[in-house]
Amino acid sequence: MTFPEFVSARSGPAERGREFGVRWSTEIAAAHTGYMTLFETLGGGTARVRALSEEALAQTTAWAPPLGAEIRAIAAGAGLEPWRIASVNARTEILAALNAPVRSECSTAVVLPDGAPPRTVQTWDWHDVMRDVPVVWAYEPRPGHRVRTFTEFGALAKVGVNGAGLGVHFNILGHASDGGATGVPVHMIARRVLDEAATLEDAERIARSARTSASTAITVVTYDGRRGRAATLEICPDGVGVVPPDRDGVLLHTNHFEDPGLAAGEAGGDELPGSRARLGHLRSRTRALTAPTPRERADALIGHAPGDAPVCAHPTSADPSRPRWETLATISLDVDAGALDIHKGGPCLATQASWRRYPRDV
What we know:
By secondary structure, the chain is of the alpha+beta class. It has twelve helices and 14 strands. The two termini are 20 Å apart.
């Protein structure tokens, strides 16, 4: 079981977006339908979701015109109205505007060994009905600058790597400042970092340039052939916090703020203890998270026994009308090779054969 992969043959946002929209029109429409169903369960009718999506598209276009053009081109290629593609890209912002409960999802671990590339792994947890939404997309935003991103059909980026030796992991956060006037979608920040950044400083500059209306943690990892670096950019409407690795070169993140100033406005309620427990679980497995292979690092995330924090999520309700959370992917970045290693499913189901490298030739 692997995720579909698409390599863009077209350059330029309009040509690239249209090509993607034409090729994956059925899948893109299904992703949008899935999100509309989710929004409706939270009280978001079509008119309100459309208004939020159109404003998110306007903010994107003002902040990064090529990204706005690419969203419109995907819509044209897929035969959909632009706001429908914008709604997938702005799903975090729409959920914040609808006051959706902050749910713990995704755990990220980065280790910076001396004299070797960074070693990373994360889980991607989302609604189990979204199992068929992910796609791995390879493209060149400019000649010679390669990007590969694990994302969703219609969304411009999420977790990914670029040819400059930089990669990003992604964790959702919740903050009291979320849900105001619609800002630049956090997924657009990840996309622009992958398209433009080669250093942590580049990524921070891009993140600080965007006015946002929802929160997320983008963990940026770089390698220049000699030294690895990493930092988590905790992004929210109140600002951007930068969380460095510890003195041993270990950087762990789940779904709560680590920046002291931003943590004062934390939102998450009953989910926060679970996020902190998962972070503690990661800390207890630090030695195993330094392992050289993605399979070994994923094994370090497993914890189902009594007293362990469940990093690997499994649906707990038999009612398909209720949100059912599942670890849909386990992802590792090889920033030295510009590659993604992905297992479709949670760490506890991973085998040596279940991992797929994108691209396969590196």
